[in-house]
C-alpha cells in the first residue's frame, strides 16, 4: 500500500512540476504586460509603482525554471532533494505573498502628482512628449492634466482632446465637444486597477504553490 501511494504521489509531483512551469510562464507574461501598462503613460503615472509587478515577473521566471528543473532532474526517491524542493517552493510562496501585500499597500498609497510638477509635465506635453500625450488623450478620452483649461495660453487645444463621437457631419472638421476630465485622474484610477490585478495574480499563484506544496510534504513520509 505504501509503495502504491509513493508511486501515486510521484506522478502527482511530476504533474505538479509541469503545472509549476506553466504557471510560472503565465505569471511572467501577465506581470510583464502589467509593467508595460504602467509605463505606457509614464508622464502621469506615480513613481515606484512597478516594483511589485517587476518582482512578480522575476519570480515567474524563476518558478518556470524550477518547474523545468524538477521535471528533468529531480530524483523523487531522494528525501533530501524532495525536501529542498519543498523549501524552495515555500520560499517562493512567501515572496509572492509579500509581493501581493506590497501591491495592495501601494494601491492604497497612490495619490495625485504634486501640483509643483504640473508646469514641468505640461511643458513636455506640448513639446517633446506631444505624440505620447495625443495617444493618451485620445485613448483614455481625457484632456490635459486636470482638464482642457490646462491648454489655456497655448496656440490651440489638440485634436486628441476632441470627443469625436459627438461630431456631426456638417461641422467641417470643427470640434464642438472636448473631453472634460483631466488625464491625471484617469491614469491614477488605471494605475490602481493594475496594482489590484497584480495583487490578484500573486494571490492566484500563491494558492497554486500551496496546493503543490502538499505533495512533497506527504510524499516525504513514504521515502525510505
From TrEMBL:
Highest rank taxon of the organism? Eukaryota
What is the recorded name of this protein? Answer: Tetraspanin-3
InterPro entries listed in its UniProt record: Tetraspanin/Peripherin, Tetraspanin_EC2_sf
Q: Which GO terms describe its cellular component?
A: plasma membrane
Write out the entry's keywords from A to Z.
Membrane, Transmembrane, Transmembrane helix
User: Is Transmembrane helix tagged as a keyword?
Assistant: yes
TM segment ranges: 12-36, 51-71, 83-105, 194-213
**Membrane topology type:** Multi-pass membrane protein
Name where it's found: Membrane
Amino acid at each position: 500500500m505504501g509503495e502504491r501511494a509513493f508511486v501515486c504521489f510521484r506522478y502527482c509531483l511530476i504533474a505538479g512540476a509541469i503545472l509549476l512551469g506553466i504557471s510560472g510562464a503565465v505569471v511572467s507574461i501577465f506581470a510583464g504586460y502589467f509593467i508595460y501598462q504602467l509605463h505606457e503613460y509614464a508622464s502621469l503615472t506615480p513613481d515606484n509603482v512597478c516594483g511589485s509587478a517587476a518582482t512578480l515577473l522575476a519570480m515567474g521566471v524563476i518558478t518556470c525554471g524550477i518547474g523545468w528543473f524538477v521535471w528533468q532532474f529531480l530524483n523523487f526517491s531522494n528525501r533530501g532533494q524532495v525536501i529542498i524542493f519543498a523549501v524552495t517552493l515555500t520560499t517562493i510562496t512567501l515572496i509572492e505573498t509579500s509581493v501581493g501585500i506590497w501591491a495592495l499597500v501601494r494601491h492604497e498609497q497612490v495619490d495625485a502628482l504634486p501640483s509643483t510638477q504640473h508646469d514641468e509635465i505640461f511643458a513636455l506635453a506640448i513639446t517633446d512628449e506631444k505624440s505620447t500625450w495625443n495617444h493618451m488623450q485620445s485613448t483614455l478620452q481625457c484632456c490635459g492634466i486636470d482638464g482642457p483649461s490646462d491648454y489655456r495660453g497655448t496656440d490651440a487645444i489638440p485634436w486628441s482632446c476632441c470627443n469625436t463621437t459627438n461630431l456631426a457631419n456638417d461641422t467641417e472638421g470643427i470640434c464642438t465637444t472636448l473631453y472634460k476630465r483631466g488625464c491625471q485622474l484617469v491614469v491614477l484610477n488605471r494605475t490602481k486597477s493594475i496594482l489590484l490585478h497584480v495583487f490578484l495574480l500573486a494571490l492566484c499563484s500563491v494558492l497554486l504553490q500551496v496546493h503543490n506544496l502538499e505533495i512533497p510534504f506527504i510524499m516525504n513520509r513514504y521515502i525510505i
